[in-house]
From TrEMBL, chain A:
The name this protein goes by in its record: Putative ABC transport system ATP-binding protein
UniProt-listed InterPro entries: AAA+_ATPase, ABC_transporter-like_ATP-bd, ABC_transporter-like_CS, ABC_transpr_LolD-like, MacB-like_ATP-bd, P-loop_NTPase
Protein family according to the UniProt entry: Belongs to the ABC transporter superfamily. Macrolide exporter (TC 3.A.1.122) family.
Organism: Arsukibacterium tuosuense
One term of GO molecular function: transmembrane transporter activity
UniProtKB/TrEMBL annotation, chain B:
Domain ABC3 transporter permease C-terminal stretches: 275-385
Keyword Membrane (UniProt): yes
GO molecular function: transmembrane transporter activity
Subcellular location: Cell membrane
UniProt-listed Pfam families: FtsX, MacB_PCD
Membrane topology: Multi-pass membrane protein
GO cellular component: plasma membrane
Keyword terms, alphabetized: Cell membrane, Membrane, Transmembrane, Transmembrane helix
Entry protein name: Putative ABC transport system permease protein
Source organism: Arsukibacterium tuosuense
Protein family (similarity comment): Belongs to the ABC-4 integral membrane protein family.
Membrane-traversing stretches: 15-37, 269-289, 324-342, 354-377
Superkingdom to which the source organism belongs: Bacteria
InterPro entries referenced in this protein's UniProt entry, alphabetically: ABC3_permease_C, MacB_PCD, Macrolide_Exporter_MacB
UniProtKB/TrEMBL annotation, chain C:
The protein's name in its UniProt record: Putative ABC transport system permease protein
Species this chain originates from: Arsukibacterium tuosuense
GO cellular component: plasma membrane
Topology of the protein relative to the lipid bilayer: Multi-pass membrane protein
Lineage of origin: Bacteria, Pseudomonadati, Pseudomonadota, Gammaproteobacteria, Chromatiales
Superkingdom as given in the UniProt entry: Bacteria
Length: 241, 394, 435
């Protein structure tokens, strides 16, 4: 579902040019759980941002579901992000002034769903991450692990087909990290493609696929095993598991 | 963004929001009231005058030699001066009078119909002592009877303005031949704006009389070809000095200038308030601008998150704008009330008409427009924040 | 000292770091203060007490003594006739009293007949005028009594204009066709507002050039060039010395000085008795309308307040309010932007007191800049007001006390504007900002 061909990204500032990604080729199929590792500054976040269309690239191409994202308008890209992609950030990035409920509701609003639909989906997502009781709390009133679970709920409430997670456990202690990891695995099992940046070798091992980046270049891809059937299923099914 | 969320975020910033609301409220109140005042000043100064403002010149002068200040030397001096002025190219008519239309102050007296002294008495009516030529010099219009002629000289025959004739006799043509306290009415002329602060600005009485003294000076009125006004003005001084150097020429003005002076206070206040309103709008714009700019910076992270969650730039722009529309909307609603309150307060100090409903609404639209214009640029900049950078971990 | 310098250096660095929001804040503050200052100046000069030590003793008496009968005319005329003045002067109660009016004439040096004469503003008055209003003499003295005499008192500026020097007592000056001796020269003197001439709405006009005895003016037929009213059919262009004195010709203001409450009530009583006896003599056909108005109430009494300026003052006060709200809104933004830094300082051990010092330094710098800017704005605004409302032209000077008051206002305003934001920024919860 994701195809990168010869993709390069250069950051230009007045002083220096940084080749964050060099001629990257990558193929990710539906339902994969891929872990991205690499030293700090190697371009992991950049790659994830490009995959999430948060950032554009300088050369090469990026096909999402067979269609190039090049030349898409801001509105089209936003729609694409909203419908197909979910983000999980290292620093959670919840909106401080919004309640948990309002935070999760935001992408659903952008999609223009009816209030009753939104409510149903938020309830399901909160149920999944186990924070239903805290729906009216403000993010500041939750622990880091809880905040990250809210962020996950927000990312999956829109039932995206790809989840991009940039060091989702980077700010968490190991117990919390394990909970989050389990949650992600659960989501993946229901068919959602996940790309996750991590520094934890254990986590990388648990992912079905391990991609390493060094100095902007994809060095090593574990063999990818095609799955026998398309796995994307509605959230309700995940929950039922 | 939804209204509830907008309200929530407003409530979160209580103090800033309240400050903003009060400010918008006062601004609208002030803007609508200064439009009201300007409108009033405009209406006042656009009342019909019955005068040729551009082509009529008034000269106010006084002999500095006391021998020239009394009749008959005075009358003889005036005639020589008028003869000289008539020689100037472009001067169509010239006449003397004891007072100029539109000029503050002058000789006023009361008038009544002797048979109905109690009911018909009108006080502070301008008494004009002039000559027959004043009719042409002021380009008057005769409505009934006749204008003053040579045989009316130093008699009590009098011509009234239409409004005064109406006031005294109900219908202006009924005045003809009637006896009033000032004399016998021989004619009625169309209204001219005489003294604003007399009992009515269109009242006036005209006699054909010599001036016996000129303690308060006297006036020469010139009717001039329209293209020659400036040139004539320049020559007046010299012409008059040539006739008699012992005079003090106090003013040479067009009636246009006098007309402007008559409404100077209203005009001045209207302009001042308009300047102040403009400043207030400017202040409101600066405030909206810097508010949007500041929040653009403050909310970079928030905007970045929203962008990552799929909000387009347009949507973010709309969110920022709708926040400022909401505050402006509330402020303006309060401002509608404040407009009427301020109008009441001002009306206790100066004369001010009632505030028509459309006016504060028009002001509100203007304010909304200004605020939107000022918010637009910083809001557009805020949407340009890179979601990748904004969502980065610290 | 070192600490103080540090604190100010920080305040200035703060400005340099974000000059635009700072400039906007100060600009808005200055606009508000400037408009306010310009109005306050005009308002002050129009409304302040020009003779604080004796204003409560100066009164303007009026009686409704017009000879024309009119039952509904209860309000006396604003100006008095010669007869009114004579009668009201006869009480012997006031410690000073003077009648007066304004006129105009042409003056020249007697030997200078070739040159055309100079227009001069005249005040026709009696000897007590100079005591009533504390008019200072530079040379010579006031007239010996109130009788007619060909003696003039000059303002300092006129003495310089006609003679090129000030000590001209004993010199001759020609006014109209008459020759006068100069018996006094005044020192610089302006009374603002000119409350003694409010009856004519001239409360902000210039003082007169030449002062002329009251009786002399009647002898020579010199009349007021402001409000004159006649209520009978005499010909006042003819034989004014008799007609003006005997007839119903109103043109004078009259002021009395009543030092004590007893004197005031005695004078009131005198007026009542006077009107009573006039009524008995058939010379007071109108209803009694005695008025004794204190000089501080005279503007209101003659309905001579400049309403336009009042309205503008009200509005400019609102404008100041708006600007204060606005500036505090902006400075709240500014402080919130540096909230992080505040939090950091506190985390590094700065006490609240030390932070307050920082804030006060900021306020002081703000106030200084705002004062300078607002004085500029005020000057521009006053020029505009003077241009649009020429009656305000003499009301624009600033005394040191006024400047001091303005500086204090600027300081207070910038303190108010920074107060809440500073508290918010420095006392906000620490952990929230540093999290
Ligand atoms: N907005 C940017 N401007 C300039 N350089 C950037 C920017 N973002 C990232 N870089 C540079 O690109 C390289 C890759 O960064 P990043 O993808 O964040 O690394 P990481 O693998 O640690 O996530 C780094 O050298 C970083 O300095
Ligand atoms: Mg990274």
């Amino acid at each position: 579902m994701i195809t990168l061909t010869n993709l390069s990204k250069i950051f230009r500032t007045e002083l220096i040019e940084t080749h964050a990604l060099r001629e990257v080729n990558l193929q990710v199929n539906e339902g994969e759980f891929a872990a991205l590792t690499g030293p700090s500054g190697s371009g992991k976040s950049t790659l994830l941002n490009i995959l999430g269309t948060l950032e554009n690239f300088d050369s090469g191409d990026y096909l999402l579901d067979g269609k190039s994202v090049k030349g898409l308008s801001d509105a089209a890209l936003s729609k694409l992000r909203n419908e197909k992609i979910g983000f999980i950030f290292q620093s959670f990035n919840l909106i401080k002034d919004f309640s948990i409920f309002d935070n999760i509701e935001l992408p659903l609003r952008y999609r223009g769903l009816k209030a009753s639909d939104r409510k149903q989906r938020i309830d399901q997502a909160l149920e999944l991450v186990g924070l239903h009781a805290r729906r009216d709390y403000l993010p500041g009133q939750l622990s880091g692990g809880q905040q990250q679970r809210v962020a996950i709920a927000r990312a999956i409430a829109g039932e995206p087909r790809i989840l991009l997670a940039d060091e989702p456990t980077g700010n968490l202690d190991s117990l919390m990290a394990r909970q989050v990891m389990e949650l992600l695995e659960q989501i993946n099992q229901r068919g959602c493609t996940i790309l996750m940046v991590t520094h934890d070798p254990e986590q990388a091992r648990r992912a079905g696929r391990h991609i390493q980046i060094v100095d902007g270049q994809l060095h090593d891809s574990t063999l990818y095993q095609p799955l026998s059937q398309p796995l994307h299923q509605p959230l309700a099914a995940v929950q039922g598991a | 963004m939804s209204l509830t969320l907008l309200f929530k975020s407003l409530l979160q910033r209580k103090v800033i929001t309240i400050l903003l609301l009060i400010q918008l409220m006062l601004t609208l109140a002030l803007v609508s009231n200064s439009i009201l005042l300007s409108q009033q000043a405009y209406t006042l100064s656009n009342q019909p005058t019955g005068l040729q403002l551009e082509t009529t010149l008034a000269i106010e002068l006084k002999p500095t030699d006391e021998n020239l200040i009394v009749h008959p030397a005075l009358g003889e001096l005036i005639q020589r001066q008028l003869a000289e002025l008539r020689k100037i190219n472009g001067v169509r008519y010239a006449a003397f009078t004891n007072q100029t239309p539109l000029m503050f102050g002058g000789m006023n007296g009361d008038v009544f119909v002797p048979d109905h002294a109690e009911t018909s008495s009108v006080d502070a009516v301008p008494y004009n002592y002039a000559e027959a030529g004043l009719f042409d010099a002021l380009q008057m219009t005769l409505l009934h009877g006749r204008w003053l002629s040579a045989e009316d000289k130093n008699t009590d025959n009098v011509v009234l303005t239409e409004k005064l004739a109406n006031r005294l006799f109900g219908q202006s043509h009924l005045a003809l031949g009637q006896q009033i306290s000032a004399g016998t009415v021989v004619g009625v002329v169309a209204d001219m704006m005489y003294q604003r602060f007399a009992s009515d600005q269109y009242y006036g009485l005209f006699f054909n009389r010599d001036l016996s003294r000129a303690d308060y000076g006297y006036r020469l009125i010139l009717q001039v070809e329209s293209q020659a006004v400036a040139a004539v003005r320049q020559q007046i001084n010299q012409s008059l000095r040539q006739v008699e150097p012992e005079i003090d020429i106090q003013h040479i003005v067009s009636l246009r200038q006098l007309h402007r002076d008559v409404f100077e206070q209203e005009r001045g206040l209207a302009i001042l308030l308009s300047v102040l309103s403009a400043l207030m709008l400017l202040v409101a714009m600066i405030s909206a601008y810097s508010h949007a700019l500041f929040h653009g910076v403050q909310q970079q992270n928030e905007i970045g998150i929203k962008r990552a969650l799929g909000a387009s730039k347009r949507r973010i722009l709309l969110e920022v704008l709708s926040e400022s529309w909401l505050t402006t909307g509330i402020g303006v609603t309060l401002g509608l009330l404040a407009s009427f309150l301020l109008q009441q307060q001002l009306a206790t100090v100066i004369s001010l008409p009632a505030l028509p409903l459309w006016l504060p609404f028009a002001g509100a639209l203007m304010l909304l427009f200004c605020v939107t214009a000022a918010t637009w640029y910083p809001a557009a900049i805020a949407t340009r924040v890179s979601p990748a950078t904004a969502t980065k971990a610290l | 000292m070192d600490n103080l310098l540090h604190v100010f250096a920080l305040a200035i660095r703060n400005i340099k770091r974000a000059p635009l929001p700072y400039l906007l804040t100060v600009l808005i503050l200055s606009l508000g203060l400037g408009m306010f200052f310009s109005n306050a100046t005009l308002y002050y000069w129009l409304n302040h007490d020009p003779l604080p030590h004796k204003s409560q003793t100066l009164f303007y008496p009026q009686i409704n003594a017009t000879l024309q009968p009119c039952d509904s005319c209860t309000e006396p005329l604003r100006v008095l006739s010669y007869q009114d003045v004579q009668k009201l002067s006869s009480s012997g109660i006031p410690s000073a009293q003077a009648a007066m009016f304004q006129s105009a004439g042409y003056a020249r040096l007697p030997e200078n007949t070739r040159q055309s004469p100079t227009p001069v503003a005249l005040r026709i008055t009696q000897r007590d005028f100079f005591t009533l209003f504390d008019v200072p003499f530079l040379h010579g003295e006031r007239w010996a009594d109130n009788s007619a005499r060909r003696e003039l008192i000059l303002s300092k500026a006129s003495a310089e204009r006609f003679f090129g020097r000030t000590n001209v007592v004993g010199e001759a000056l020609q006014l109209g066709n008459e020759l006068y001796t100069i018996t006094g020269v005044l020192d610089d003197w302006t009374m603002l507002p000119r409350l003694y001439d409010v009856a004519n709405g001239l409360n902000s006009a210039q003082s007169a050039d030449i002062y002329l005895p009251w009786e002399t003016a009647y002898d020579l037929g010199i009349k007021s060039n402001t409000t004159t009213m006649s209520r009978d059919s005499r010909n006042y262009s003819d034989n004014f010395a008799v007609n003006g004195r005997e007839g119903d010709f109103f043109q004078a203001q009259f002021w009395v000085q009543l030092d004590t409450a007893d004197q005031v009530s005695a004078y009131r009583q005198f007026m009542q008795q006077l009107v009573q006896s006039e009524k008995e003599a058939g010379r007071h056909p109108r209803p009694e309308g005695n008025r004794l108005t204190n000089i501080l109430d005279i503007t209101e009494h003659f309905n001579a307040r400049n309403r336009q300026l009042d309205a503008f003052a009200l509005v400019s006060l609102l404008f100041l309010l708006v600007c204060l709200f606005n500036a505090s809104h902006l400075s709240l933004n500014r402080y919130l932007a540096s909230q992080y830094e505040f939090g950091l300082r506190r985390a590094l051990g700065a006490s609240r007191g030390q932070l307050q010092q920082l804030i006060l330094a900021d306020v002081a710098v703000n106030a200084a800049v705002a004062l300078l800017l607002s004085l500029t704005v005020a000057m521009v605004a006053m020029a505009l007001i003077n241009h649009l409302l020429p009656a305000t032209r003499n009301l624009t000077s600033w005394s040191p006390a006024m400047l001091f008051a303005m500086a204090a206002t600027a300081l207070a305003a910038s303190y108010i504007v920074s107060l809440y934001p500073a508290i918010r920024a420095s006392f906000g919860s620490l952990n929230r900002q540093l999290k």
